[in-house]
Amino acid sequence: MDKKTISRDGTELAYGRAGQGPAVILVSGAMSTGGTVAPLGGLLAHRCTVLWYDRRGRGGSGDTAPYAVEREVEDLAALIDAAGGEASLYGISSGGALALEAAASGLPVRRVAVYETPYAVDEEAVRGRAEYGERLADALAKGRRGDAVELFLRLTGLAEEMIQRARQSPMWAGMEAIAPTLAYDDAVMGGGRVPRERLASVGVPVLAAAGGESPHWLREATRAVADAVPQGTYRTLEGQTHMVDPNVLAPVLAEFFDR
Length: 259
Known about the structure:
alpha/beta; 46% helix; 8 strands
Protein backbone atom coordinates (compact mmCIF):
# COMPACT_ATOMS: atom_id res chain seq x y z
CA MET A 1 0.00 0.00 0.00
CA ASP A 2 1.48 3.25 -1.15
CA LYS A 3 -0.52 5.86 0.75
CA LYS A 4 -0.39 7.08 4.35
CA THR A 5 -2.64 9.05 6.66
CA ILE A 6 -2.39 9.95 10.33
CA SER A 7 -4.97 9.08 12.97
CA ARG A 8 -5.93 11.43 15.77
CA ASP A 9 -3.43 9.91 18.23
CA GLY A 10 -0.57 10.20 15.73
CA THR A 11 -0.65 6.60 14.50
CA GLU A 12 0.36 6.28 10.86
CA LEU A 13 -2.01 4.22 8.74
CA ALA A 14 -1.04 2.59 5.45
CA TYR A 15 -3.73 2.29 2.80
CA GLY A 16 -4.36 1.67 -0.87
CA ARG A 17 -6.83 3.39 -3.15
CA ALA A 18 -8.35 2.62 -6.53
CA GLY A 19 -11.30 3.46 -8.74
CA GLN A 20 -13.80 6.26 -8.89
CA GLY A 21 -17.32 6.83 -7.70
CA PRO A 22 -18.83 6.66 -4.19
CA ALA A 23 -16.13 6.11 -1.56
CA VAL A 24 -16.01 2.73 0.21
CA ILE A 25 -13.54 1.71 2.92
CA LEU A 26 -12.85 -2.00 3.40
CA VAL A 27 -12.22 -3.20 6.97
CA SER A 28 -10.46 -6.53 7.45
CA GLY A 29 -11.06 -9.00 10.27
CA ALA A 30 -8.78 -10.73 12.78
CA MET A 31 -5.38 -12.06 11.71
CA SER A 32 -5.52 -10.17 8.43
CA THR A 33 -4.24 -7.01 6.80
CA GLY A 34 -5.48 -4.67 4.12
CA GLY A 35 -3.93 -7.00 1.57
CA THR A 36 -6.54 -9.59 2.50
CA VAL A 37 -9.38 -7.42 1.19
CA ALA A 38 -7.41 -5.75 -1.62
CA PRO A 39 -8.65 -8.24 -4.27
CA LEU A 40 -12.22 -7.29 -3.37
CA GLY A 41 -11.24 -3.64 -3.72
CA GLY A 42 -9.99 -4.26 -7.22
CA LEU A 43 -13.32 -5.78 -8.20
CA LEU A 44 -15.27 -2.83 -6.78
CA ALA A 45 -13.08 -0.15 -8.33
CA HIS A 46 -15.08 0.04 -11.56
CA ARG A 47 -18.03 1.51 -9.64
CA CYS A 48 -16.55 2.90 -6.42
CA THR A 49 -13.56 4.73 -5.03
CA VAL A 50 -12.20 1.99 -2.79
CA LEU A 51 -9.79 2.29 0.12
CA TRP A 52 -8.32 -0.69 1.96
CA TYR A 53 -5.95 -0.29 4.87
CA ASP A 54 -3.79 -2.04 7.44
CA ARG A 55 -5.53 -1.73 10.78
CA ARG A 56 -3.26 -0.46 13.54
CA GLY A 57 -0.63 -2.94 14.63
CA ARG A 58 -0.61 -4.69 11.25
CA GLY A 59 1.36 -4.52 8.04
CA GLY A 60 2.55 -1.02 7.18
CA SER A 61 0.53 0.77 9.87
CA GLY A 62 1.84 1.84 13.24
CA ASP A 63 0.46 1.26 16.71
CA THR A 64 0.13 3.48 19.75
CA ALA A 65 -0.51 2.27 23.28
CA PRO A 66 -2.81 2.00 25.06
CA TYR A 67 -5.28 0.35 22.72
CA ALA A 68 -8.97 1.25 22.76
CA VAL A 69 -11.74 0.53 20.27
CA GLU A 70 -12.25 4.30 20.09
CA ARG A 71 -8.79 4.64 18.56
CA GLU A 72 -9.79 2.31 15.72
CA VAL A 73 -12.91 4.38 15.16
CA GLU A 74 -10.65 7.43 14.94
CA ASP A 75 -8.57 5.52 12.39
CA LEU A 76 -11.66 5.14 10.24
CA ALA A 77 -12.41 8.85 10.71
CA ALA A 78 -8.96 9.65 9.29
CA LEU A 79 -9.54 7.37 6.33
CA ILE A 80 -12.95 8.90 5.68
CA ASP A 81 -11.25 12.31 5.61
CA ALA A 82 -8.74 10.91 3.11
CA ALA A 83 -11.62 9.59 1.02
CA GLY A 84 -13.20 13.03 0.78
CA GLY A 85 -15.17 13.46 3.99
CA GLU A 86 -17.83 10.77 3.57
CA ALA A 87 -17.70 7.05 2.82
CA SER A 88 -19.51 3.76 3.09
CA LEU A 89 -17.93 0.92 5.05
CA TYR A 90 -17.59 -2.80 4.42
CA GLY A 91 -16.30 -5.07 7.17
CA ILE A 92 -15.75 -8.79 7.23
CA SER A 93 -16.00 -10.83 10.45
CA SER A 94 -14.83 -8.73 13.43
CA GLY A 95 -14.08 -5.95 10.95
CA GLY A 96 -17.83 -5.78 10.46
CA ALA A 97 -18.31 -5.13 14.17
CA LEU A 98 -15.81 -2.28 13.91
CA ALA A 99 -17.60 -0.82 10.88
CA LEU A 100 -20.91 -0.91 12.73
CA GLU A 101 -19.38 0.75 15.78
CA ALA A 102 -17.96 3.50 13.57
CA ALA A 103 -21.41 4.15 12.14
CA ALA A 104 -22.99 4.13 15.60
CA SER A 105 -20.33 6.63 16.74
CA GLY A 106 -21.65 9.20 14.31
CA LEU A 107 -18.92 9.22 11.69
CA PRO A 108 -20.00 10.50 8.23
CA VAL A 109 -20.90 7.04 6.94
CA ARG A 110 -23.40 6.61 4.09
CA ARG A 111 -23.96 2.87 4.22
CA VAL A 112 -22.52 -0.19 5.96
CA ALA A 113 -22.17 -3.73 4.67
CA VAL A 114 -20.93 -6.57 6.86
CA TYR A 115 -20.16 -10.20 6.19
CA GLU A 116 -20.61 -12.75 8.98
CA THR A 117 -20.06 -10.71 12.13
CA PRO A 118 -19.20 -13.54 14.57
CA TYR A 119 -21.33 -12.57 17.55
CA ALA A 120 -22.24 -15.26 20.09
CA VAL A 121 -25.85 -16.41 19.76
CA ASP A 122 -26.29 -18.28 23.07
CA GLU A 123 -25.00 -18.11 26.64
CA GLU A 124 -22.67 -21.07 26.23
CA ALA A 125 -20.95 -19.28 23.37
CA VAL A 126 -20.74 -16.09 25.44
CA ARG A 127 -19.00 -18.02 28.22
CA GLY A 128 -16.64 -19.54 25.67
CA ARG A 129 -15.72 -16.08 24.37
CA ALA A 130 -15.01 -14.88 27.91
CA GLU A 131 -12.70 -17.84 28.52
CA TYR A 132 -10.98 -17.21 25.19
CA GLY A 133 -10.43 -13.56 26.09
CA GLU A 134 -8.86 -14.46 29.44
CA ARG A 135 -6.55 -17.09 27.97
CA LEU A 136 -5.61 -14.79 25.10
CA ALA A 137 -4.69 -11.96 27.47
CA ASP A 138 -2.57 -14.35 29.54
CA ALA A 139 -0.71 -15.72 26.51
CA LEU A 140 0.03 -12.27 25.14
CA ALA A 141 1.12 -10.94 28.55
CA LYS A 142 3.64 -13.78 28.74
CA GLY A 143 4.87 -13.21 25.18
CA ARG A 144 3.52 -16.53 23.92
CA ARG A 145 2.39 -15.28 20.55
CA GLY A 146 2.22 -18.72 19.01
CA ASP A 147 -0.10 -19.89 21.76
CA ALA A 148 -2.27 -16.82 21.17
CA VAL A 149 -2.59 -17.67 17.49
CA GLU A 150 -3.49 -21.27 18.37
CA LEU A 151 -6.23 -20.04 20.70
CA PHE A 152 -7.73 -17.98 17.91
CA LEU A 153 -7.56 -20.81 15.39
CA ARG A 154 -9.33 -23.11 17.85
CA LEU A 155 -11.99 -20.45 18.36
CA THR A 156 -12.62 -20.50 14.61
CA GLY A 157 -13.13 -24.26 14.76
CA LEU A 158 -9.94 -25.29 12.97
CA ALA A 159 -8.96 -28.90 13.67
CA GLU A 160 -5.91 -29.57 15.83
CA GLU A 161 -4.14 -31.34 12.98
CA MET A 162 -4.57 -28.26 10.78
CA ILE A 163 -3.34 -25.98 13.55
CA GLN A 164 -0.15 -27.99 13.92
CA ARG A 165 0.36 -27.92 10.17
CA ALA A 166 -0.10 -24.17 10.23
CA ARG A 167 2.64 -23.90 12.86
CA GLN A 168 5.05 -25.48 10.39
CA SER A 169 4.01 -23.31 7.47
CA PRO A 170 5.86 -20.25 6.15
CA MET A 171 2.83 -18.12 7.11
CA TRP A 172 3.22 -18.75 10.83
CA ALA A 173 5.84 -16.07 11.44
CA GLY A 174 3.55 -13.45 9.92
CA MET A 175 0.67 -14.67 12.06
CA GLU A 176 2.76 -14.39 15.22
CA ALA A 177 3.84 -10.89 14.19
CA ILE A 178 0.27 -9.57 14.38
CA ALA A 179 -0.86 -11.82 17.24
CA PRO A 180 -1.16 -8.85 19.67
CA THR A 181 -3.96 -7.49 17.48
CA LEU A 182 -6.08 -10.51 18.41
CA ALA A 183 -6.74 -8.66 21.67
CA TYR A 184 -7.91 -5.67 19.61
CA ASP A 185 -10.47 -7.76 17.75
CA ASP A 186 -11.57 -9.33 21.01
CA ALA A 187 -12.21 -5.81 22.34
CA VAL A 188 -14.08 -4.85 19.17
CA MET A 189 -16.41 -7.82 19.68
CA GLY A 190 -17.27 -6.47 23.11
CA GLY A 191 -17.73 -9.76 24.94
CA GLY A 192 -19.41 -11.47 22.04
CA ARG A 193 -23.09 -10.68 22.49
CA VAL A 194 -24.99 -8.93 19.70
CA PRO A 195 -24.93 -5.27 20.85
CA ARG A 196 -28.59 -4.70 20.01
CA GLU A 197 -28.96 -1.40 21.86
CA ARG A 198 -25.85 0.03 20.19
CA LEU A 199 -26.90 -1.25 16.78
CA ALA A 200 -30.30 0.38 17.19
CA SER A 201 -28.51 3.75 16.99
CA VAL A 202 -27.08 3.07 13.51
CA GLY A 203 -29.00 5.48 11.32
CA VAL A 204 -27.88 4.35 7.86
CA PRO A 205 -28.79 1.39 5.63
CA VAL A 206 -27.00 -1.82 6.61
CA LEU A 207 -26.56 -4.95 4.51
CA ALA A 208 -25.70 -8.03 6.58
CA ALA A 209 -24.63 -10.99 4.43
CA ALA A 210 -23.70 -14.56 5.24
CA GLY A 211 -22.69 -17.63 3.29
CA GLY A 212 -25.22 -20.35 2.65
CA GLU A 213 -22.62 -23.00 3.49
CA SER A 214 -21.44 -21.30 6.70
CA PRO A 215 -22.34 -22.71 10.13
CA HIS A 216 -25.88 -21.99 11.28
CA TRP A 217 -24.70 -19.87 14.22
CA LEU A 218 -22.81 -17.49 11.92
CA ARG A 219 -25.86 -17.02 9.74
CA GLU A 220 -28.00 -16.51 12.84
CA ALA A 221 -25.57 -13.93 14.22
CA THR A 222 -25.54 -12.06 10.93
CA ARG A 223 -29.31 -12.06 10.72
CA ALA A 224 -29.41 -10.68 14.27
CA VAL A 225 -27.41 -7.67 13.08
CA ALA A 226 -29.88 -7.01 10.27
CA ASP A 227 -32.75 -7.28 12.73
CA ALA A 228 -31.14 -4.95 15.28
CA VAL A 229 -30.43 -1.98 13.02
CA PRO A 230 -33.39 0.16 11.92
CA GLN A 231 -32.56 -0.08 8.20
CA GLY A 232 -31.15 -3.59 8.04
CA THR A 233 -31.31 -6.15 5.24
CA TYR A 234 -30.15 -9.75 5.50
CA ARG A 235 -28.86 -11.64 2.48
CA THR A 236 -27.56 -15.17 1.99
CA LEU A 237 -24.84 -15.80 -0.58
CA GLU A 238 -25.50 -19.34 -1.71
CA GLY A 239 -22.54 -21.70 -1.83
CA GLN A 240 -20.29 -19.40 0.20
CA THR A 241 -18.49 -19.93 3.51
CA HIS A 242 -16.66 -17.55 5.85
CA MET A 243 -13.90 -17.48 3.21
CA VAL A 244 -16.21 -15.70 0.79
CA ASP A 245 -15.26 -15.52 -2.89
CA PRO A 246 -14.63 -11.85 -3.81
CA ASN A 247 -16.08 -12.52 -7.27
CA VAL A 248 -19.40 -13.51 -5.67
CA LEU A 249 -19.40 -10.75 -3.06
CA ALA A 250 -18.30 -7.81 -5.21
CA PRO A 251 -21.45 -7.49 -7.37
CA VAL A 252 -23.66 -7.58 -4.26
CA LEU A 253 -21.63 -4.85 -2.58
CA ALA A 254 -21.38 -2.72 -5.72
CA GLU A 255 -25.15 -2.73 -6.10
CA PHE A 256 -25.63 -1.81 -2.44
CA PHE A 257 -23.05 0.98 -2.32
CA ASP A 258 -23.82 2.57 -5.69
CA ARG A 259 -27.20 3.96 -4.58
